[in-house]
Amino acid sequence: MNAVVENKAGEIEGQMQETGRRARVASRALARADTGVKNAALLAIAQIIEDRADALTAENRKDLEAGEQNGLEAALLDRLAFTPERIAVMAEGLRQIAALPDPVGAISDLNYRPSGIQVGRMRVPLGVIGIIYESRPNVTVDAAGLCLKSGNACILRGGSEAFHSNRALADGIRAGLEQAGLPGDAVQVVGTTDRAAVGALLRMKEHVDVIVPRGGKGLIARVSEESLIPVIKHLDGVCHVYVDDGADPGKALKVAVNAKTQRYGTCNTMETLLVSRHVAAEMLPVLADAFVEKGVELRGCESTRAIVSGIAEATEQDWTEEYLAPVLAIRVVDGLDAAIEHINTYGSHHTDSIVTEDYGRARRFLREVDSSSVMVNASTRFADGFEYGLGAEIGISTDKLHARGPVGLEGLTTLKYIVLGDGHVRE
Amino acid sequence: MNAVVENKAGEIEGQMQETGRRARVASRALARADTGVKNAALLAIAQIIEDRADALTAENRKDLEAGEQNGLEAALLDRLAFTPERIAVMAEGLRQIAALPDPVGAISDLNYRPSGIQVGRMRVPLGVIGIIYESRPNVTVDAAGLCLKSGNACILRGGSEAFHSNRALADGIRAGLEQAGLPGDAVQVVGTTDRAAVGALLRMKEHVDVIVPRGGKGLIARVSEESLIPVIKHLDGVCHVYVDDGADPGKALKVAVNAKTQRYGTCNTMETLLVSRHVAAEMLPVLADAFVEKGVELRGCESTRAIVSGIAEATEQDWTEEYLAPVLAIRVVDGLDAAIEHINTYGSHHTDSIVTEDYGRARRFLREVDSSSVMVNASTRFADGFEYGLGAEIGISTDKLHARGPVGLEGLTTLKYIVLGDGHVRE
């Protein structure tokens, strides 16, 4: 590194440290803020975003022009663009978060112990959350809203291609926070597009309690690799539907087709279909026809290809592939044990479903499949914070510690113990 | 590194990888094991430990002799030694774990959603737990018991000074597991005293889900620094009692004296006493007398020394010091806000207590102090898995993610989502 670069890096490190310190201070005020105050801030921000629609659109225009000049692809430019509808959706999202119950301060399991003390648990914010994301600027508003409602300060680092849009949104968020009497530093958007800022953020253990990356696999892998702070994440969604011996053919067809074709690019889309050998000859032709009709490319194991002709061979690599596209791997397995073994070995511990009418096998599948969501007779596409009733979702975790599955407000909090006594001491 | 050393390190790496692979395989069987089978294994191990008391004592003798030769201090030798009573305590501990409710498989919050699916959560084991500890060989048995009951496989790495004792215990544990029909690999004790084995264990992300270090601060700091796997830990116990304006003098005296003097060397012992300025002149002389009578050395802030004469000055460093000894720092603070500020700034987020009769200040202290246990009118010494009714404790966590406070069986498990449908698909 030459002296100029080193100096620059030191400067960014210093700026990020300052951002972190401010976030930590603001997090204390957020943690003790009343539900009413937090909701007032959410509603104020929603109003400001609507009121400033023209100014936001003008800033967004700058990003779009820069994107065009830099040859950003049309799909990315589309994601980046503000429209009146998208601005309304952002504001509406904040109003929905305001309407959700406040998880903070809830006390549970408060019981008397033989010593005479009462012991219970109180739900409290995590503190400071760092969120690293890519092009969609609406994440700035969503993430800020969820962190605010759950009593956490946050540091947001969006994609450089949305720099002006994010900065304009950040100004609005700060204004709304201050209008409600909360510290503006509770939501800070990183003010530089320099990559070094991400590295600095991922090292600030003393100021940041958890990192949530939102974006493609590359981003998430990089963040997980580099972070010294715990990360809430999922890398892959290699989801399965297993059609069991005891499956109802109509339900199998409905669930499998929905799991694959309702949307191709989502992490809870089925990527591999497993079929029990005992029903393969009966079920596979019907299933294959339905997929082919939808334009899905099929890749099968040897047994599958003996039943369904004219499809490509699935290789070992197909079992771990997240296609995110109209492609499906199919494998015939010997039964429940082989299906569970396949899922636990090749899957990504995201979401897996069995189609069966057999009570015992449904019960075993639920217990033995080691995934963040395990389903019976339901489409994997249901694995989602809104569908699960969390009200909102900051992401899906396939990790085991802390949050697992869709992460809503509760996943941004933790439990501390509280003890109530009356001069009690330990003997 | 020369070729011989490199070869040795590679060999240990290979052995540890093999241990990890076996643990992962065993963890699947453990996760689906019935409560009755797990309890049978716990009782079988307890019986074997009692039956083999003589053989265990003979192996322990080897460690004690080696320790004497290596000049191990008397206190450490004492911790290391098996006696008939200690062997009985180990067996009894296992029987108590067998009597605890099984957390695995419990389903909670199973509710119908508007789409027609039922969504709930099932408690499941974490998978494979790595435990790194120092001299006491009883940890081998305790930790194995807690992991077994919570459906987890474990890899145990004890101190080299307890090598023979741990190996003999491991043989007994394996025999008990196999007697109950569970895989012997569910509990593996690392078979080498080489330090490289610890490093290898801390890097095996694919085979180990969480690391629990048990021992002194040095060990825990080293493990946290080096581990690529999430760690459940606490580094320090800098616990506070705050005597509020509204404190009952009798309760203040009782709680503060118990918090400091009931035991000096535990992590939930008070290390700093905070007293509100408004009651300092009244309370401090009585409190100081009581501590001096117990032989506790006092170090005070300027205001404290103006009231209690002849005590040393507390420096900035005293506010963050975990004495683990008959030494107490005392600070006069301006009131509740200053007390909370002091605790959140200098404390270790372990356990802090307020003594007060004031309803509003008790309520604020409970919410605003950012510690794993927050108490009102109770001694900090209560922060303990048994006192909290967890039945047993593998450690205390001052981290925020996953487990916070005393960690019992539940802390060794996680929640996955389950979805029950009847051919439901997403529209």
From TrEMBL, chains A, B:
Cellular component GO terms held in the UniProt record: cytoplasm
Cross-referenced SUPFAM superfamilies: ALDH-like
Alphabetized UniProt keyword annotations: Amino-acid biosynthesis, Cytoplasm, NADP, Oxidoreductase, Proline biosynthesis
Catalytic activity: L-glutamate 5-semialdehyde + phosphate + NADP(+) = L-glutamyl 5-phosphate + NADPH + H(+)
Gene Ontology BP annotations: L-proline biosynthetic process
Chief localization: cytoplasm
GO molecular function: glutamate-5-semialdehyde dehydrogenase activity; NADP binding
Broadest EC class assigned to this enzyme: oxidoreductase
InterPro entries xrefs: Ald_DH/histidinol_DH, Ald_DH_C, Ald_DH_N, Aldehyde_DH_dom, G-glutamylP_reductase_CS, Glu-5-SA_DH, GPR_dom
Coiled coil location: none
Domain Aldehyde dehydrogenase span(s) in chain numbering: 16-291, 319-383
EC code: 1.2.1.41
Location in or out of the cell: Cytoplasm
Highest taxon in the source lineage: Bacteria
UniProt pathway annotation: Amino-acid biosynthesis; L-proline biosynthesis; L-glutamate 5-semialdehyde from L-glutamate: step 2/2
Free-text function comment from the UniProt entry: Catalyzes the NADPH-dependent reduction of L-glutamate 5-phosphate into L-glutamate 5-semialdehyde and phosphate. The product spontaneously undergoes cyclization to form 1-pyrroline-5-carboxylate.
UniProt xrefs under HAMAP family: ProA (MF_00412)
NCBIfam families named among the record's database cross-references: PRK00197.1 (NF001221), proA (TIGR00407)
Family membership noted in the UniProt record: Belongs to the gamma-glutamyl phosphate reductase family.
UniProt-recorded name of the protein: Gamma-glutamyl phosphate reductase
Lineage summary: Bacteria, Pseudomonadati, Pseudomonadota, Gammaproteobacteria, Chromatiales
